[in-house]
Amino acid sequence: MTKLSLLNGRLLDSGDGTSSTSDVFIAEGRVVALRQPPEGFVADQVFDIEGAVVSPGFIDLSVHLREPGFEHKATIASESNAAVKGGVTTLCCSPETAPPCDTPAVIELIREKAELAARSKVIPIGALTQGLQGESLSEMYALKGAGCQVVSNGMRAVANPLIWRRALEYAATYDLLVVVRPMDPWLAGSGTVHEGSVATRLGLPGIPPSAETVAVAQILALVEEIGTRVHFSCLSTCRAAAMIGAARRNGLPVSSDVAAHSLHLTEEAIEGFDPIAHVLPPFRTFADRDGLRQAVADGMIQAICSDHQPHEEDAKADVFAATEPGISGLETLLSLTLDLVDKGRLSLVRALTCLTSGPASVLGIETGRIVVGGVADLCVFDPRANWQVGEQTWISRGRNTPFWGETMRGKVLLTLVNGKVVYRDSDPR
Amino acid sequence: MISVRDLQLDEQGRLRHFLTVEGLNSEWLHRIMDTAETFGSVRERQVKKVPLLRGKTVVNLFFETSTRTRTTFELAAKRLSADVLNINVAVSATAKGETLLDTIRNLEAMSVDMFVVRHAGSGAAHFIARHVAPHISVINAGDGRHAHPTQALLDMFTIRRHKPEFGPLKVAIVGDILHSRVARSQIHALKALGVTEVRVVAPRTLLPVAVESLGVKPFCDLDRGLEDVDVIIMLRLQKERMEGALLPSEREYYRCYGLTSKRLAKAKPDVLVMHPGPINRGVEISSAVADGRHSVILEQVGHGIAIRMAVMVLAMRSGQ
After folding, report:
1. pLDDT bucket at B96, cuts 50 / 70 / 90
2. How many whole angstroms separate alpha carbon A244 and alpha carbon A226?
3. Disulfide-capable partner of A120 in A83, A147, A365, B23 (CB 3.0 to 4.6 Å)?
4. CA-angle at A60, arms to A150 and A428, nearest 5°
5. 3-state SS assignment for residue B292
6. Which of A405, A317, A416, A310 is nearest to A370 (CA)?
7. Half-sphere exposure of A99 toward its Cβ, with a 13 Å CA cutoff?
8. A257 has which bridge partners?
């Protein structure tokens, strides 16, 4: 197996946030030494990455790969390729495929395709209910047998609180993590955007913030009784973040994440009925956006995800409410997160924690940190380098990003998975 | 974020499409009304036609059924000597699985000049305007809950005919504000024309959140909402509002929000009573008021043709 040296990079100390220039030595897919090479170490490949940051590879808790079933939108191969370009070395993929990921066969199919693609690691999330119909339990024991550790009903509704309770109990039986995207289907109704002044002016049916807080309150009450590990994904309101943060402080086994685009955009983004800004949960108010940023800074929210949902062009070519929600986000995850560092909202350490060790501890996996002996899933990026979102740089099959055409700061130079180079920026620095 | 202004007006500030009242200033609204005035006489002629749109093809593209609006648009186009094609898409192409864009592309291929669009989805006219060939103008004949700009303009036209100026007026819009595209367009128009006070009156279930952000004063009590107003605009209550727990019954609605002669007395003595139609007698308005001396409801219908003629001519001009 190849031996690699990454020379003159900046390593961050997650304790005090200081960075020091350091070399990283990799062999057998693991980090074998920092600073000084092990005795007799001869690298097959040497990268001089002077000035760039060496970070653990990013762990993305919410990604739609679209395969099986929606290959006209994207494939596991295309999107895991986009992932490593974004510095993502591990991603959790949604069970909302066709057929849904509710059998070991689908888990195995996803895993095989991911191995064949040989880019980022893929953690398939199993369906919480059969066919994601929200009515009867999926065969969670069988899913676990196929290696599944996480279950979710994705964006699909669960019929009623009793089914939620049973599903959480049954998941707890096999110590599965349940990922919940909190949105009460009754309160959300036919809404597609934040229920606020922009929706009122445009005459678009809205989704009130209570659709999220009611769903969170309901699940928290059940977790209090049952104790299942629950991760709330893609929050849109700062109120929900506070509720989950408080429950966590009280010892409940809950955590949460937010999509990077929700830390930037607000309800104004839908102005002119822009279908690219049609996303669920919807972009909300400036107060929510700023509150979510603060919740990330305070550690109330543990992870930032991409909530990557690639679409073909036709999915967005219709009257607003008839378009499919979602944003292609893998490739802008790092830049959007670093932008908050530039704006002084997050420290660099906190930002990277939310992309690495934060989501790693949600999943209970060993990656997400750089330690001697640890798996060499790494991302090397230049926080100062600019790149333009567009034709020349984009890899994902879904071009549905509100940031198309924008210049972004923070560029991935090199991505390693199990000590192997899976992405290398072609632009000479 | 997409700029609507750039979509609706061209570089010279001319009307390319007519999608919404939002963003049009008072000068623009008066220009449309002034143009409509010049067409007022056409209906009195022996031959009710002017040749302004001769040789042009106007397509009434209705994805939602409507008799009144479609008829007035059709008459307006015919009085301008245009050829008119009525397409009821609700029962044709898209029902067969054709996408909206494909429907548009097919009609474009037939060399038409203008689309008059009615659609149940908010933003439909914007979507079509963004995607049509550059020589085609799009007129919004109602999109979802968003806008119905020609209706609002004909209402302003009616008010202008009866009231010397907009500035000092107090106007109350009563009824289902939440679902009403008419109310939204009226609010924008009244604000642009400088009306002092625009009130919206409805139970909380039929008022959109943050409605004050549109620059209006919300009232839940009809008697208080009507105090001292110069114009009352009643909105039609759809029967389906009894479903989904928005209202308990028509009876209770009428009791609280029905416009009766007794309630009308709260308003100014020369108050105008308007309604975009079709009216539900005994649900939102009593027959005595609908047919009474303050009512200008039928006059509104007649003005609809003149306003639609004006908008068509102004929009078609920029395309040449």
Report:
1. low
2. 16
3. A83
4. 150
5. coil
6. A416
7. 13
8. A303
Domain count, chain A: 2
Residues A402 and A283 in one domain: no
Q: Do B146 and A202 make contact, defined as CB atoms within 8 angstroms?
A: yes
Q: Which residue segment(s) compose the domain that A73 sits in?
A: 57-363
- A398 vs A10, A82, A308, A326, A337, CA distance in Å? 33, 10, 9, 10, 20
Q: Looking at the structure, do residues A339 and A259 belong to the same domain, yes or no?
A: yes
Contacts of A317 in chain B (CB under 8 A): 99, 101, 131
What CATH number has the domain bearing residue B127? Answer: 3.40.50.1370
Domain that holds residue B96: 4-147+303-318
Tokens linked to A122: 């893929």
Backbone angles phi, psi at B282, to 5 degrees: 80, 5
Give pLDDT tens digits for A154-211: 999 998 999 999 999 999 999 999 999 999 999 999 999 999 999 999 999 999 999 9
CB contact (8 A) between residue B213 and residue A201: yes
Helix B26-39 vs helix B149-162: crossing angle, to nearest 10:
80
List, in order, residues 6 or more apart from B46 with CB less than 8 Å away: none
Are A195 and B209 an interchain contact pair (Cβ–Cβ within 8 Å)? yes
Integer Cα distance of A44 and A365 in angstroms: 29
**Token pair 């690691």 in the structure block, residue:** A121
Record the tokens describing residue A15, joined without a space.
């304790």
pLDDT for B91: 61
Annotated catalytic sites of A, by residue? 307
Cβ pair B209:A203 closer than 8 A: no
Kindly report whether the peptide bond that precedes residue A99 is cis, defined as omega within 30 degrees of 0: yes
Question: Which residue among B2, B100, B184 places its CB closest to the CB of A203?
Answer: B184
Q: Are residues B139 and B216 in the same domain?
A: no
A contacts of B213 (beta carbons < 8 Å): 197, 200-201
Q: Are residues A400 and A306 in the same domain?
A: no
A 10 A CB-CB count for B245 gives: 8
Q: Which residue has the tokens 């994207």?
A: A74
* Residue range B49-77, pLDDT digits in tens: 899 999 999 999 999 888 888 999 999 99
Q: Which of A268, A317, A321 sits opposite B1 (nearest CB)?
A: A268
- The Cα–Cα gap between A162 and A166 comes to 6
Question: Which of A192, A193, A273 has the most B C-beta neighbours within 10 Å, making it the best mutation to test the interface with B?
Answer: A273
Instruction: Locate A424 and state its tokens.
Output: 């290398």
pLDDT of residue A262 exceeding 60, the answer is yes
CA dist., res. A51 & res. A162, Å (int): 54
Closest CA–CA distance from residue A330 to any residue of chain B (Å): 21
Dihedral angle of Cα A116, A119, A123, A126, to the nearest 10 degrees: -50
Which CATH number characterizes residue A317's domain? 3.20.20.140
Give the distance from CA A318 to its chain's centroid. 27
Whole-model pTM over 0.90: yes
Strands, E assignment, chain B = 57-62, 83-88, 114-119, 137-143, 170-174, 197-201, 217-219, 231-234, 272-274
Query: Where do we find the tokens 């119905």?
Result: B148
Query: In terms of domains, do B296 and B178 share one?
Result: yes
Residues 6+ apart with CB under 8 A from A128: A95, A137, A138, A151, A152, A153, A158, A167, A171, A178
Q: What is the ipTM of this complex?
A: 0.93
| Residue A246 token pair | 């408080």
**What is the reported pLDDT for A2?**
87
